[in-house]
Amino acid sequence: MVSLPVAKTTGFGGGEADSGGFGGGAGSSGKKSAKRKPGKANHRREQCPMGRDPDIDAIKARQSLGLPLTGRLTEQQVKRAHKLLAVKHHPDKGGDPELMTRYNNARDVLLEPEMEAIVG
């Protein structure tokens, strides 16, 4: 009996360097997948104070209002958190003026894009 050489197959283009089919292999000339660096957002809106990757001032503002430190926020969440703290700590109701100033500044930092749109 004569034995013929049998080609080794691994599926749809996986494993062989000269495969031209599906799967891409090592020699594929398709799109390069640009990995983003950890902690960096792809789009500017993700870096805004209410976006997924806020800067340090926004993180401090979120912390003072008792909001989550990461993740997206809505305008309504920020306003609700500020209002609850304002009612509790307002100087006219016997609260501390310094705390109220801190909460107001935190609200202004988080709502910065909306405030610029109103002024400009």
Layout of helices and strands, plus pairs?
Elements: H1 44-47, H2 56-65, H3 75-89, H4 97-110, H5 112-119
Biased composition (Gly residues): 11-28
InterPro entries: DnaJ_domain (IPR001623), J_dom_sf (IPR036869)
Domain J: 60-115
Elements, N to C (H/E): HHHHH
**CATH top level of one domain?**
Mainly Alpha
Shape: rod-shaped
- What share of residues are in beta strands? under 5%
Question: What would you give as the CATH superfamily of one domain?
Answer: DnaJ domain
Largest sheet: none
In the CATH hierarchy, the third-tier topology of one domain is known as Helix Hairpins
**pLDDT < 50 stretches:** none
- What is the second-level CATH architecture of one domain? Orthogonal Bundle
Organism: Parasynechococcus marenigrum (strain WH8102)
Protein name: J domain-containing protein
What is the compact description of this entry?
Residues 11-28 have a biased composition (Gly residues). With 120 residues, the chain is mainly α.
Walk me through what this model shows.
By secondary structure, the chain is mostly helical. The protein has a domain at 47-119: DnaJ domain (Helix Hairpins), CATH 1.10.287.110. It has helices at residues 44-47, 56-65, 75-89, 97-110, 112-119. The mean pLDDT is 75.
Using brief descriptors, characterize the structure shown.
120 residues; Helix Hairpins; 42% helix; rod-shaped; mainly alpha; J_dom_sf; DnaJ_domain; 0% strand
